[in-house]
From TrEMBL:
Recorded GO CC terms: cytosol
InterPro entries: MoaB (IPR012245), MoaB/Mog-like_dom_sf (IPR036425), MoaB/Mog_dom (IPR001453), MoaB_proteobac (IPR013484), MoCF_biosynth_CS (IPR008284)
Name of one Pfam family that matches: MoCF_biosynth
Species of origin: Oceanimonas doudoroffii
Domain of life: Bacteria
Sorted UniProt keywords: GTP-binding, Molybdenum cofactor biosynthesis, Nucleotide-binding
Functional note: May be involved in the biosynthesis of molybdopterin. Can bind GTP and has low GTPase activity. Can bind MPT, but has no MPT adenylyl transferase activity.
GO biological process, one term: Mo-molybdopterin cofactor biosynthetic process
Record pathway: Cofactor biosynthesis; molybdopterin biosynthesis
Name of the protein described by the UniProt record: Molybdenum cofactor biosynthesis protein B
Protein's gene: moaB
UniProt cross-references to NCBIfam families, sorted A to Z: moaB_proteo (TIGR02667), molyb_syn (TIGR00177)
């Protein structure tokens, strides 16, 4: 049974940049994601930049997950190993189901670019309240890899044999 559609189903996607230093002017990763998702025919539901604070991240992502107006949340930043990187800890408890393959595939793809340094990526994905949530590293290159290598297809109802859209609408 195919879970693909014959036409694009535009999704409402929220983008969060987690950074202690970036502003709207310097947020190239968030800007890339906005341009990529709107270029693919989706709608930007909301965009925000937050400092790397587990509770602020959790509060905003919880609001987006609870909103019927948001179907996908993409977070960039806060996935490293420093003491300030708390995105996985903030988001993990909110997920009803983890999409293990997202982080695995992201690391597989980035291995071609970064070699063994990719083991330090804590990229993750999951579903919560019929909302897909994806956490990517903060670099623009990582966002490009995550979007082009995984999300562009998995958020497109026309992608066969399956995609995430059926779980979100």
């Amino acid at each position: 049974m195919s879970h693909a559609s014959q036409e694009l189903v535009p999704l409402n996607i929220a983008v969060l940049t987690v950074s202690d230093t970036r502003t709207e002017d310097t947020d190239t990763s968030g800007r890339f994601l906005v341009d990529a998702l709107t270029g693919a025919g989706h709608r930007l539901a909301e965009k925000a930049i937050l400092k790397d604070d587990k509770y602020q991240i959790r509060a905003l992502v919880s609001r987006w997950i609870a909103s019927p107006e948001v179907q996908v949340v993409i977070i960039t930043g806060g996935t490293g190993f420093t003491g300030r990187d708390t995105t996985p800890e903030a988001v993990g408890p909110l997920l009803d189901t983890q999409i293990d393959g997202f982080g695995e595939l992201f690391r597989h793809i980035t291995y071609q670019e970064l070699g063994t340094s990719t083991v330090q990526s804590r990229a993750l994905g999951g579903l919560a309240n019929r909302t897909a949530v994806f956490c990517l590293p903060g670099s623009t290159g990582a966002c490009r890899t995550g979007w082009n290598g995984i999300l562009a297809e998995q958020l497109d109802a026309r992608h066969k044999p399956c995609n995430f859209v059926q779980h979100l609408v």
